[in-house]
Structures are given as C-alpha cells and as structure tokens.
Amino acid sequence: RTMGSWLLSAAAGVGFGILQFIIAIFIAGFLLAGSEAGAKAAHAIASRLAGAKGARFARLAESTVRSVTKGILGVALIQSLLAGVGFMVMGIPAAGLWALLCLLLSVIQIGVLPVILPMVIYVFSTAEPTPAFIFLVWSIFITLVDNILKPIMLGRGVEVPMAVIFVGAIGGFISSGIIGLFVGAVVLVLGYTLFITWLDELPDKQDNPANGL
Fold this sequence. Notes:
The chain starts with a helix and ends in a 6-residue tail after the last helix. It has 7 helices and no strands. By secondary structure, the chain is mostly helical. It has one domain (42-199). The protein is 87% helix and 0% strand.
C-alpha cells in the first residue's frame, strides 16, 4: 500500500510537471507574439528612469532572454527532435513520449543521457548489430549536440560571460521553474553588469577627489 501511494504520488508529480511545462510554453508563445511592443515599452521606461544606462540595461535584458531561448530551450528542442527521429526509425515503443522526456530533461540541464542510454541497451537487445551500432553513433551525436551548440548559442550577442547567463538560468529554474530560466538569467546578468560598471567607475572617483566637493 505504501509503495502504491508512493508511485501514485510520483506519477502525479511528473504529470503536474509536464502540465506546468506545457502551460509555460503556451504562455511564452503568447508573450512572444507581443514581444516587439513589450521590448519598445521596456526600452522607453528604462531610458526614462536611467537615461543611457537604462537603455543599455534594457538591451542587455532583451539579448539575455533571446540567448536563453536559443541556448537552452532551442538546444533542448533540437536534441529532443533528433532523439525522437532515432526512436521512431528504430521502432522504439512510445517514441514521442520518450522524446518529450528528453526535452524536459534537457531543459532542466540533466541531459538526455538518462533516456538515451536505456534506449541504446534496448536496441542492442532487440535489433540487428548494424542498425544498433548506427543508433549508438546517432545517440552519441545527440548527447554531444548540447556541448557543441550551447556555448555558441548561449553567449552570442550578449556582453557578459556565458557562465553568468547559464548560472542565472539554472538558479532561476530551480527557484521558479521554466519562467525562472529567463528571470534568473536577466537578474544575474544585470547584477553582474551593474557590479562591473561600478568597479570601472570607482577608480575615476578615487583619482579625482575634488569631483566630490
């Protein structure tokens, strides 16, 4: 009875997580449709509040969101699609469900290996050696896609180191789920930029004490 309750609770948790993920994707799509108007409003507000620096921070936030979308969600989607193609070609049951699980694990930065590895074992136990070996090579390629594309796409077009964006996105996800990917990255990137700007301006004030009089 205890085991059954645990399994039911685990299944409910997984189901709720998938539902939350799907809802977040729909919300993100809805917001993306009005992203241009939202970006203009954000630029106008930031410029009014902080002048040139505000406009810079607004551009930085915009480029950070775009970077996270491409570097984390985009790479996760590519990996899941490639995995799904391999699963279907090899005739693996419930290929679409396994591909969706790959998408979820890739987004939360666990990676697709926990799904890919059992699939490789299954294929080697049920298929001929040649197609099984081809599927193994294909699976290795899928797992390497993350290491190849993420550094390229995550840091492109942003003025801060890729590690800052990545740490912010992961911390935000742990704290607030899918939306936290973006919020955490933006907050850490802006905080990092403010800190670096403060460090750059500090020597000027120390070298010119008369400016404070």
